[in-house]
Amino acid sequence: MKTAINVNNIKKNFGDVIALKGVSFNVRSAEMFGLVGPDGAGKTTTIKLLCGLLMPTAGTAQLFGFDLVRDMLKIQKQIGYLSQKFSLYGDLTVDENIEFFANLHGVKDYKNRRNELLEFTRLTMFRTRLGDNLSGGMKQKLALACTLIHKPKIIFLDEPTTGVDPVSRRDFWKILSNLQQDGVTIFMSTPYLDEAERCNRVALLNKGEVLSFDTPKNIKQSMNKSIIEIVCSPAIAAYKILKEKSNYETQMFGDRLDVVVTEYEKDYSVIEKLLVEKGIQMIDHRIMPTSLENVFIHLIGEIKDNVS
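The chain above was modelled as a monomer; its predicted structure follows.
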């Protein structure tokens, strides 16, 4: 499959602050690629570099074979960028916003394309509404329509569903799926690991470094551990006991504990005995499929252990 984006050891410093420490990955044509990580991981910096809004301190990147630095004018004609914040014009209507971006990209005969995008994003009935009067989900769909007006080959989406309600979030994913089927390469960043599961491949990014890069399935399998979900009371006390009195990696999710183990039956017996002896009431437990969140927390924990 043709490579759309190739990133090789990209570094980015802002003065003394190192935002990217040597990031490498590739994105295939017509792939949905996810850059996953918490705030401050370097996701937005990476996207801005690939869109030509920032220049790398070191390293190289190519988009469809064009060099990121030398050929940026050629690259910009083939990409679309949807930033984190709604950057359209609130005093313009839906139609007028799309018209503005069509003119910005030099698209002269844009009306048919605009109608297609309004239908595609289900915004046709709202075309005369001002941008300021749209809901969060509709603003994101309008921003996407403006991003697509010049038919880019790659679209960069920086946390596109942050702050969007669940229904609009689901609609947005349907739109992205249809775009991918039409051959558009989608590069998105997200802090939501459940969203990352939908991507063809993902790169887990933390503090400017790629911790893992593969399909979600392969990343989860690479952990080579089992996850026991334990329901007990009080959960917080149980979490502290396991963190302080055992070597088991323990992750807390609400009133439940995810404990990473090597051998399910043997390890659960040890965990149960320890908690019961400390007065914890064991309510239920089960083996859980490994999630990207489990893997991400596990990888960060390994880094901390190696540093210490």
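The chain has two domains: 3-214, 224-289.
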